[in-house]
Structure prediction request, 169 residues.
Amino acid sequence: MTRPGDMKSAAEAALWGRFRALERSDASQEAPTALELAAYTEGRLDEAAAERIETWLHGHREALDDVVAARSGHELPAPHEVVERAAALVEPDPAGARIIPFRRPAAPSYGWRVHMARVAVAASLVLTGLIGFTLGTESYASLFGPAASVTGGLFDQSSGVFTSEDSAI
Prediction:
């Protein structure tokens, strides 16, 4: 990054301009933590903290390359030097290392919820039908008077079947 024309975005050009301005200043500060660098890379720092990290990055070009690679990580593959530095942080085969797999979460059982939903729908249909039938029958009777039975009394209970005399026995 030596010229602003080489930049791919306005944000990179603005960052380059800040570093060129910082070349003239002689500020030496302590190194930021890895979490602070990650927060800076993601743009989650306030202006004062970002200025402090930018001042530090001015003197550490390898860290600046890491930040730029992390910001454009999804667009381009990381430079070989960045991959080598990241691989050097991890031991290739640590002694006594053991891989612990994550447990698969148990598949949720929604069978009883589906069953209860179906029962609720059926109950609401029965209740709605019963209320509608009752209201319809009562409104018909109030408008047109009591209707004569279609069966002609065949299925009506006769008064002599269950009398008080039979219930005493």
About this structure: The chain is about 55% helix and 0% strand. The mean pLDDT is 75. Residues 28-88 form one domain.
